[in-house]
Amino acid sequence: MPNKEEITNWxxxxxxxxxxxxxxxxxxxxxxxxxxxxxxxxxxxxxxxxEGTIVEKGGVNFSAVxxxxxxxxxxxLRVEADTSEPITFxxxxxxxxxxxxxxxxxxxxMNVRYFEMSNGTWWFGGGIDLTPHYVDEQLAxxxxxxxxxxxxxxxxxxxxxxxxxxDDYFFIPHRNETRGVGGxxxxxxxxxxxxxxxxxxAFLQSVGSAFVDLYSHQVNATKDLPYGENExxxxxxxxxxxxxxxxxxxxxxxxxxxxNGRTESILMSLPPQADWAYSYEAAENSxxxxxxxxxxxxxxxxxxxxxxxx
Amino acid sequence: MPNKEEITNWxxxxxxxxxxxxxxxxxxxxxxxxxxxxxxxxxxxxxxxxEGTIVEKGGVNFSAVxxxxxxxxxxxLRVEADTSEPITFxxxxxxxxxxxxxxxxxxxxMNVRYFEMSNGTWWFGGGIDLTPHYVDEQLAxxxxxxxxxxxxxxxxxxxxxxxxxxDDYFFIPHRNETRGVGGxxxxxxxxxxxxxxxxxxAFLQSVGSAFVDLYSHQVNATKDLPYGENExxxxxxxxxxxxxxxxxxxxxxxxxxxxNGRTESILMSLPPQADWAYSYEAAENSxxxxxxxxxxxxxxxxxxxxxxxx
Lengths: 310, 310
Prior knowledge:
The structure is a homodimer.
Chain A: H1 4-26, E1 32-37, E2 42-50, E3 55-68, H2 71-76, E4 88-100, E5 107-117, E6 122-131, H3 137-152, H4 158-169, E7 171-172, E8 177-178, E9 182-189, H5 197-222, H6 229-249, H7 251-258, H8 263-266, E10 273-275, H9 287-293, H10 301-309
Antiparallel strand pairs in A: 1-2, 2-3, 3-4, 4-5, 5-6, 6-9, 7-8
Helix pairs in contact in A: 1-5, 3-5, 3-10
């Protein structure tokens, strides 16, 4: 059964391999590293790449923090626990957000994490989602098909459940639109009749290990596509929506900022630049309007792929 | 005693006079108006000015909404009320945020509002605060002195109390800095031994009526100051902080977005453009570093003015 040391070390290695993979994909950008410690226990390795050929601003963060479980956290997590003696927690994970230079290339996000408490409770969580500035249906389908393949190796029930969870999580209520074309999201993966801790851990490893291939496919298919000022303007408006989601609705960001997390590591997810225009309306039948039309829950992207492939 | 019709009509007139005043100040920009209705009752007049000579993007919103008091709202407002029969509410106000084109000119915000419930409870609230991209101590002092003069006409206890309240409200905890140089903030102004409803209303009217003069002073003192790419870059980073405050911490914004308010009217407060740079550090002794040094609570701006005037 994987223990926290093994999980932590593997996640550190994942950060290394993803950073190497992304530097190779980018061609010119290099990650800069900041090591930080948390006064209450633990710390992290924040790695940020700016002004690359592909990536304009992106981060790949590893952290492993520990300490006494704040009662507020128990409440937020809705965990019932015997608090007659102090409970400590340990949380480790890798978080990634990449903002590409080209409006033709999607923004991508991944998080894989492990959490345990001294009372024996533990779980895995995470997710990957894609936010194209312009939705290319084939590439969105490819992304979902690849995620489905990763999930199906572990449990064919995973993809449908986690795809729906992502639709619900990566949603901007005040805009009534999804952040992008979704992906997978999961939390509180514990031991069940079907799954041991080793099973859950193997799934998390598969998700993490798939990242560079997933994004490479998106980058390679889009990096040479032309774009102009019109597309860059639209990209900055879409980045504004990304900011809105992260600052208003993302539970991880909100929790981090409200509990005195390391601000620069949390907010590395924000784009280099974002625009807001009052009551912007995309022209009818424009590529921008088509994209807005696809920012909806419950699109079966895997079947869309099958349709177009036939 | 002022009633809701009288208050509402006066606030509508305030929106008109502020828009006229700002158009005159700007010289070229004109407000565009959107009328909107709220399905649950009431509506508003959103006025936005973009691409002016002085103002790059700004809004002056009037709204008057009413309906059944949601139990959630009673809880948020921490109001104890007999809920054995349905309570209705009425809320009206004017909200302003102006993002100037020049990094030498401060961002300004004002809100004046009135709230009442069918059970007889009512209050006034509001505030004005200034967010210079570069803090000019004389101009910050002028701003506070003008606010103190407005307050002192009504109660000499107002300015010190409401200035401290603004320091606490317009604060970004995850950055450990104030949004700007503050101003005044007040809420739940009700009847007391010292103040009738008419007194409170007269104070709110004085605050609202002071707006155009307050901002004109800031604009006239800064509009001809030179600036270059360096100052514009800094402006976009400061606008990023404005976005962070509004989306993460501002109670009005959060409440509006979470309760299905009119998104475009709420988010007219966001700048036209904002930047984020990972771990940006201002050069030692630079004007940017000097500004950061002044983004603190408890600066006695009025006394600073007296010192420099002597």
